[in-house]
Amino acid sequence: MNVKSVKKIGLGLLSLGILGGLTACGNGSSASDSNKEDGKTLTVSVDPGYKDYVNEIKETFEKDNDVKIKLIEKDMFDQLESLALDGPAGKGPDVMMSAYDRIGALGQQGHLAEVKLGNEADYDETDKAQVTYEGKVYGEPAVIETLVLYYNKDLVDAAPATFKDLENLAKDPRFAFDSETGKNTGFLAKWTDFYYSYGLLSGYGGYVFGEDGTDPSDIGLNNQGAVEGISYATDWFQNVWPKGMQDIKSAGDFVSQQFMSDKAAAIIDGPWQAQTYKENDINYGVAKIPTLNNGESYQPFGGGKGWVVSNYSKNKEVAQKWLDYVTNQENQEKFFEMVNEIPANQKARETAKAKNDELTTAVIEQYETAQAMPNIPEMGEVWTGAENLMFDAASGSKTPKESADAAVKTIHEAIEQKY
Q1: Which of 86, 138, 154, 400 has its CA 20 to 30 A from that of 71?
Q2: Hey, what long-range contacts does 175-178 have (CB within 8 A, 24 or more apart)?
Q3: DSSP 246-279
Q4: What distance in Å separates the CA atoms of residue 373 and residue 305, rounded to the nearest whole number?
Q5: Amino acid 2: pLDDT
Q6: Strand, coil or helix: what is 244?
Q7: Residue 165's closest CA among 258, 284, 291?
Q8: d(Cα 44, Cα 321) in Å, to the nearest integer?
Q9: Rounded to an integer, what distance in angstroms lies between the CA atom of residue 334 and that of residue 319?
């Protein structure tokens, strides 16, 4: 889930960061009236940052299918949120993109059409899970993303490989936090944000929903493993990190500021932060997140975006062809080349990895250990219920077990009330 989707879903909806900082362009009134089309026009809505890419590849599709692509520039989340009204009114697009974590709910609500995976052989099980809800496929995977480790090459010789390495950084006097005796910023992670801390809890055996993220009655955020992960994080919060790391709202800014001022040697963050560090001339490297002390991999959420078809479209057959076309190897390689986001198509992903770009390689390798973010509607209650999961333990107001139990109780109650 890109961070932007996470924030939309958890906080107003959610939390995952801003992928590209794209702003809305256009409004619902500019979209094509699908009900009035003659079948010769396919209306495609994308973020403004994807406009050049679609214009680059559309000509071949238009010729092969005797159809005209009408391109609408509109913020992805605005488009998804307006679909429920614009679709029935005949003003919505035929095709658009969706954050993976929205696809299940939109499909369940009847707003997205069921589709087929035209390039199914090029997806792994995680990719397929991102666009599947209750056995039905509502989109074709397009983009992958997940958290990675950034490290400052001027401060460390190589990427830390284990959490023991990170613990050693936290003992390095170069990273002592001047205003708080005994505190250290050698390694930082915004673990008060559940999106960031989930990989830790999951690596120790915690989970959101059972049955591959599809059983909301089975919440494993307070099992023995999850509590062990929370306890480990609590030690960092109480004995290593400055007090500011407990601030749910500002901890992310604190992490970035420390990294950009050479006060942190390694941090966990998302690919959306790379441009900021580049613009600030940080000599950074990117790698897979280090191995946990139990020998397991950090298992963050794997997110991204897929192409979807409006269930209100009168051009579903052509829309399906567009999905197959835009997600094939050639066009996914072009996507990476022009947009610099990592393609979901496995063959195109390997081409991207062969470019030997550290960020691309790190995301691809980390994604192999990532867990598909549950895309069932009940996931919205997890973001709200787990908001204070780590803070309550870090602040000492609850024990790790009490904090976990309270969060799970809140999530269960919210699901029972709403579903």
Answers
A1: 138
A2: 175/263, 175/264, 175/265, 177/242, 177/263
A3: G-TTTHHHHHHHHHHTTS-SEEEE-GGGHHHHHH
A4: 12
A5: 45
A6: helix
A7: 291
A8: 13
A9: 20
Could you tell me which residues come within 8 angstroms of residue 293 by beta carbon, excluding any fewer than 6 positions away? Answer: 162, 163, 164, 232
Give residue 260's identity as a one-letter amino acid code: M
Confidence of residue 322 (pLDDT cuts 50, 70, 90): very high
Q: Which residues contact 96 (CB under 8 A, 6 or more apart)?
A: 44, 45, 46, 76, 79, 80, 83, 307, 308, 310
Which residue is listed with tokens 């214009």? 55
Nearest to 92 by CA among 55, 26, 45, 38: 45
Task: Answer yes or no: are the C-beta atoms of 149 and 267 closer than 8 Å.
Answer: yes
CA pair distance 3, 120, nearest whole angstrom: 26
Per-residue pLDDT, averaged over 357-377, amounts to 93
| C-alpha span between 370 and 367 (Å, rounded) | 5
Question: Which among 252, 242, 333 has a CA at the least distance from the CA of 57?
Answer: 333
The token duo for 191 is 């673990």
Residue 28: pLDDT over 90: no
Q: Give the residue from 97, 103, 112 showing the smallest Cα distance to 47.
A: 97
Distances from the Cα of 381 to the Cαs of 157, 221, 240, 418, in angstroms? 42, 13, 31, 9
Tokens of 414: 């919210």
Q: What single DSSP character describes residue 112?
A: B
Q: How far is CA 76 from CA 21, 108, 217, in A?
A: 12, 19, 31
Enumerate long-range contacts of 230-236, CB under 8 Å, 24 or more apart. 230/201, 230/389, 230/390, 230/393, 230/400, 230/403, 230/404, 231/393, 231/400, 232/200, 232/204, 232/293, 233/191, 233/197, 233/200, 233/390, 233/393, 233/394, 234/390, 234/393, 234/394, 234/400, 236/170, 236/191
Instruction: Determine the Cα–Cα distance for residues 37 and 162; give it in Å rounded to an integer.
Output: 57
At 271, the amino acid letter reads P
CB-based contact 68:106 (threshold 8 Å): no
